[in-house]
Amino acid sequence: MKVDLAIVGGGSAGFAAAIAARNRGLSVAMVERSKLGGTCVNVGCIPSKTLLAAAEAYQSGRNPNFPGIPRIEGPANFGAISEAIARVVGEARAEKYEDLVTYYDWSLIRADAHFEPGPVLVAGEEHIEARHYLIATGASPKLPPIPGLDEVDYLTSTSAMALAQLPESILVVGGNYVGLELGQAFARLGSRVTIVEALERLAPFEEPELSAVMEAALRREGIEILVGSQVVAVRRSQHGVVVTTSQGEEITAQHVLFASGRQPETSRLCLEAVDVRVKPSGAVEVDEELRTANERIWAAGDVTGGHQFVYVAARQGAVVVENAFEGRHHRLSYSSMPRVTFTHPNLASVGLTDLEAQQRGIPCACRVIPASLLARAAASQEAIGVIKLVANAATRQVLGIHLAAPNAGEVILAASYAIQANLTVDQLAEGWAPYLTWAEGIRLAAQSFGADVSKLSCCAA
Questions:
Q1: How many CA atoms lie within 13 Å of 396's alpha carbon, on the beta-carbon side?
Q2: N or C, fewer C-beta in 10 Å, the chain?
């Protein structure tokens, strides 16, 4: 088979590239050995956020914020929730992936794939020769080398999404976004949850003020948290799994869930045969234009070891087509790329942290205000969270905006636009913000550079 573009991987990066290519009249062959949709649809974003939404609804019913609202009684029906998740996943996979193969009319080959010199992509019995190739095989959960791990039944973020019954207890290894989201979801549905994080705080790559809010919120919900503690051994017990930590604790749980990182899927591709370099992590090495050491082979998405977000993968897939077939030299900028942890409260960030600004030698000025200053917090009976604004002390340009608050994931888009537009704190402070919204917190944080915002009236200019 000869085509313009051959793609290995049927996730967001691969589909974005295939659509971009077909819109230009190019022929495409895609190879996928498993389900279409990649991590996001099948075992990541969509099922986990559906689980979180179910847990949020159950939590709200059990612990309503307002007086006068009766609490619901009885356990959650985890089987019914699992069926709903499977239905949502199936519909998303069909509408956003499977149906598009027919609509855009490209060749789909269901097989394992590897490269041979040429380059040629071998998929089952098919040998594919292409003008350009895209590696978009994604990443999978990474397991740490822990004694006893091969003797116990453990969970990953993938297998946790397939549980048929709610665990009585679960120990989560990893306190970053995956561990936090799944840990809180299972706890809210009724599991006894412990989170173990090797670094000194939860959400260790976010601002420390956000980490503190997150830890306090989870502890209030009954989640046990161990930070600065590593899992050094696991073993079976009659009650499930016993985990030994570096601090000497022995914790027994029905299940242990490893949410401690992901590794790029490259081991089966035989990339050495086509002179594509791979990093020690397994990630495909690419330049800023997403080209590998082989000028006809490109890579996009999680397999590159970069920002592991579905919207980044999709944008990269489209950029590969522009650069490969139009001779462009498009280099993506990630300076205004937002990220969200969908816990309650959300953690949402864009731009530089305080520490990152200092490390770059930028004179930094920061303000942190409690979300309780927002009228929305009082109206919603949710006085939880903080908003942190990082600015250049000399120019007052906004460098970063970081929130721990309800609906922060919705608010962060406005923050991303502010950074993309190179706004100053003065421009943010003078701009419009709708009253009684969480988004008003961005303007309030900007106003705090020149005023004591706790002493302002509602909507004070």
A1: 11
A2: C
Q: CB of 154 within 8 A of CB of 256?
A: yes
Per the CB < 8 A criterion, the answer to whether 356 and 363 are in contact is no
Per-residue model confidence as pLDDT tens digits over 34-46: 999 999 999 999 9
Residues 209-250: pLDDT tens digits? 999 999 999 999 999 999 999 999 999 998 899 999 999 999
Which DSSP state fits 243? E
Q: What angle do CA 184, 185, 190 make, to 5 degrees?
A: 95
User: Residue 247: how many CA atoms within 13 Å on its side-chain side?
Assistant: 12
CA separation for the pair 16, 7 (Å, rounded): 11
- Residue 222, by phi and psi: left (phi above 0), alpha (psi -120 to 50) or beta? left
Q: Which residues pair with 305 in a beta bridge?
A: none
Torsions phi, psi for 335 (to 5 deg): -65, -25
The secondary structure element, H or E, covering residue 368 is strand 364-370
Distance CA 185, CA 195 (A): 12
Residue 282 above 90 pLDDT? yes
Mean residue pLDDT of the chain comes to: 96
Residue that is written with structure tokens 């953690």 in the block = 347
How many residues does the structure list for the chain?
A: 461
The two tokens of residue 239 are: 């009650």
- Residue 316 and residue 13 in contact, taking contact as beta carbons nearer than 8 Å: yes
DSSP character for 172? E
